[in-house]
Design a protein that fits this description.
Helix content: 40-55%
Oligomer: single chain
Order of helices and strands: HH
Number of helices: 2
Radius of gyration: 26 Å
Amino acid sequence: MARHRKPPAAPALLRRALAAVPPAQRLAAGLALASALSATAVTAFVDPAAPAAPDRSPAGTSSLAQFSRD
């Protein structure tokens, strides 16, 4: 009977892939990921400090009427 080799587990593949990357690059990638996740969390959970100025229109809703001088 032929023996079949069991495929390596995902953690073993991950460890092997990480071992091929230099430690400085792993640190940089980890810090970039942490920065992106924290920026996402801040924008999701923190309210702006002040409301939009009343003389400004929301982004994307400008019209030519704002720029005309009478």
